[in-house]
Every structure is written in structure tokens, then in C-alpha cells.
Amino acid sequence: MKSAGRIIAAALLAATPALAQPAGTLRIGLASDIDTLDPVLSNTIAGRSVLTALCDKLLDVDENLNFIPRLAERWAWSEDRRALTLTLRAGATFHDGTKVDAEAVRFSLARAATLPSSRRRSEIAEISAIEVTDARTVVLRLSAPSAPLLAQLADRAGMVMSPTAVQAAGNDFARAPICSGPFAFAAQVPQERIDLRRFPGHWNAAEVKVENVSFRPIPDSTVRILNLRSGTLDLVERVAANDVAPLRRDTRLRYAEARGFGFTSIIANVGNGPRAQNPFGQDARLRQAFDLALDRDALNQVVFEGANTPGNQPIPPGSPFYAPSFPMAPRDVAAARRLLAEAGQPGPQVTMLVPNTPEFRQMAEVMQAMVRDAGFDLRIEVRELATAAGMMNRGEFQAFLIGWSGRVDPDGNIFAFNHCRGANNDSKFCDPRVDSALEAARASVDPAERARHYATALGIALPDRHRIYLVHEGWRFAHATRLSGFRALPDGIMRLEGISLN
């Protein structure tokens, strides 16, 4: 307890002078640091929120998940849905003063599709050609119909970067990114802050009501809320479930929440480099035993006070794309032990990489006790999130406990993690039958048909347990009463336009 007290005190002391800024500065407490400020490479929810303020997208979604215009003011599909025509907004400019035109859109989409390290490649894989017909018109030619394409263009794949800046900076673009969002990059100190300044040339500048934004990564929810109560933060994201009741009673603060469609899961390394070469990575029976040793309901109660929804699929229950033919199995330690004995591994050791937030650490510790009953020796390796994400990308893990914020279209929760060429397939699971089903789901615009294809894919992928799904979490925010205009959306991304400080 003494060390926890010192951490909280240090956080408050460090934050007070640094965050005592003019009323025109919106100060936001993030639950983790970003991984990168390059939309093509970014893979964290913190990065999505910062980049949404920095880089305009072609489309966006509203509170009801309807697509709304951003840089593209209109869009139209061809009759065969193999061409999407985007008409761009007139007068939009990048932070460097250059124009946002069709050639800039072509450049950004081509970079997202071809950069070897791109995390967006599989999201827009059906784009076979990008045609610029005039300064404000782009036609995307597709190799096959793509039901989730609009959803991808309403996320990081649709963020447009200044070609001039990208070409000048090369691999260093993320150090001082130049896009066309409502805020421009000012400074970044890793693990400490990301500062943005209002962009007066933005096409929607009238709705940009604060002069500056300072994002502060503070992994502990309690410390974030202490900073909010002390007046050194104005808005905090990802509030821990056990902080909700006190927040609702606090008349000095406001609480906001939205349903989510993401998930928390354990990634098992089954083919990503040397760390996959062990019994847990090579024998699905060990992963199935691990899964059977878990009690998701108890995990949800102990860590999240019952606030989340236990689950064993990438799509939450209640979604039309949820596969009811694969219900969540109850905990069965005896069956887990039988599988381990059958595999000749009665006491396997597994090292799990865990981000350094209290919730992730507590989840790991609860699961450590659960799987011990089946014979597992679960070791916990805690790392800062951005560091852990880099280790995941490089295959430097055996198992990794991590969350996914979810996407508007179910494809965003399934394809990239389960397709052989999926950009987020860090486990390196690969089965051509799954690929075929996922590609068929993308090509259909009939929700019932898509759901059938997803059920086929999950019927093959889920038993492998290369991902062990645990819970589906909603989005919880808190802010000072002097802040108005904040909206909590189901995708968890903070939109800063319309927010003002009184």
C-alpha cells in the first residue's frame, strides 16, 4: 500500500505544475500511451483517439453508427458494388497548407495498402485500383464487393495524410505527423504527453472550441480520476468498473458511457517465430485445457464487478453476427486435466505478456489462480502497452493478454485476426477454409448470409484457441462539470469537436 500511495502522490505532484495550463487547453487522461502517430501503423485505442483529433477521415460514424461525411462529402456504389466513388469536400487543407485533393487520398490509400508494415493492408485488401478523375473525385475499384469498406474508411484506413509531409519525412513521419484534422501536432514526450493545437484552417473550425489539447497517459484508473478531481485533468477515458459508483455520486464530475463491441482476449503464439515452438503454441489441446480452466463469469465479477459481458467469440452476444452454435462452455477443471494428460503435458509452463494497467494485471492474476487448478504454471510478464504491442508484432511472446476496441462492421473484429494474411494476425494462425469463409462474408451485403459465413469461419478457428476470448467491455468516461459537449460513442473514440471548457 505504501508503494501505491507513493505512485498516486507522485502522479499528482508531477501532474499539477505540468497540467496547470490556460482554460483553452483540454487535458485528457489516457489509459495507455499511444504506439505511433502514423495511422497506417497504429494499432491501439489510445492511438485511434489521438489520431482522430489529428487526421481527418474520409467518413465517420455518429452515435447510432450511421456513416456521416468527413473529407468525403458524398459517396456512391456502382450497381455491382465493385466501384465506390468518393466526392471530396471543397476547401479542405492539410496542416502544412497544402490541399486535400483526390491525389492526396490516392496517395494515403495506396500507402496503407502497400507499406510492408501496414496494419491497414487487410482492411482494404479488395481495393485493386484507385482512380483520380478530377481534383475532388476518387473512384475505388474493387476486386470483389466489400461490405465493410465504408466502415474501414471511417477509421484509420480512411485517414488522409499530407503527401508532401510523408515524402519529406519518410520513416520519421510519426515524429511530427501532418494531416488535416481539427488539431495539429505540437509536441510529444513518450510516456508523458501528446500536445496538439487548434488548426484554424479546418473546414469545421467553428466546432473546434478549445485552443490546445494535451493527452496524458496514466495507466491507473484511480490515478486518472484523482487528477480529474484535483482539476489537473478535464476528461478521462476507460474508467475502471470499480470507479463507476463513486463517480455517479460525485456532483463535481460527470460520468458517460456507451455500449461497446470489442473484446479482451489472450493471443496464443502458434506460428510467429521461435516463441511459438513450445507445447502451448504447437498443441491445441493445451490451449483448449487453458480455456476450460477459466471461469469467465467469476473473472467478470472479481475484476469488473459484473459490468462487462463474458464471451468466447469476437462478436458480443446480442449482435446479429454472434454465432449461437458456439455457446460459452462452463469451467471444467477435470476436463482440462484430462486434455493435458492426453497431450503428455500435466504441468505446462506458460508465460503471458500483460499490459501494465491495474485491470489487466488483476485479470492475469485471477486467471493465474484459475489455471493453476488444472496444472498450469502461468508466469506473468508485465510491460508498458506500447512496448508490449511491439513485442507482439515481432513475435516475442508466448501468450498475450490484450484488448481490441471493436469495429463498426463485424469484419473488423474477425478478418484481420483469423485470415492467413490478416494484418493483425499476430498468432499466425492460418487455415485456407477460414480464409474462404471470411472472404465470402466480405463479399456479401446480406447480413444473414454474412452471419452464416462467420459461423463457418468460427467453427474452424475457435477450437484452435489461437485466441481465447474473455469479456466484452463497454466504454466508460468521466469529465469535469466545466466541460460540455462530450459524446460517448460505441467505438470508444473520443471526438473533440464540439467540446468546450466553461
Summary tags:
502 residues; globular; 16 helices; Dipeptide-binding Protein, domain 3; D-Maltodextrin-Binding Protein, domain 2; alpha+beta
**What number of domains?**
3
Q: How many beta strands in the DSSP annotation? A: 21
First CA to last CA: what distance? 37 Å
**How many distinct helices?**
16
Name the strands of the widest sheet in spatial order. Answer: 8-9-10-1-11-19-12
* Mean pLDDT over the full residue set: 94
Question: What gross morphology would you assign?
Answer: globular
Task: Report low-confidence residues grouped into runs of 5 or more.
Answer: 1-23
CATH class of the largest domain: Alpha Beta
Explain what the structure shows.
The chain has 502 residues and is an alpha+beta fold. The protein folds into three domains: 25-54 and 181-259 and 477-501, D-Maltodextrin-Binding Protein, domain 2 (3-Layer(aba) Sandwich); 59-165, Alpha-Beta Complex (Dipeptide-binding Protein, domain 1), CATH 3.90.76; 263-472, Dipeptide-binding Protein, domain 3. It is built from 16 helices and 21 strands. The strands form five sheets. Strands 8-9-10-1-11-19-12 form a seven-stranded mixed β-sheet, sandwiched between helices. A six-stranded mixed β-sheet has the order 14-18-13-17-15-16. The protein has a four-stranded antiparallel β-sheet with strand order 4-5-7-6, with helices on one face. A hairpin with a 2-residue loop joins strand 6 and strand 7. Its main location: periplasm. InterPro entries: Peptide/Ni-bd, SBP_5, SBP_5_dom.
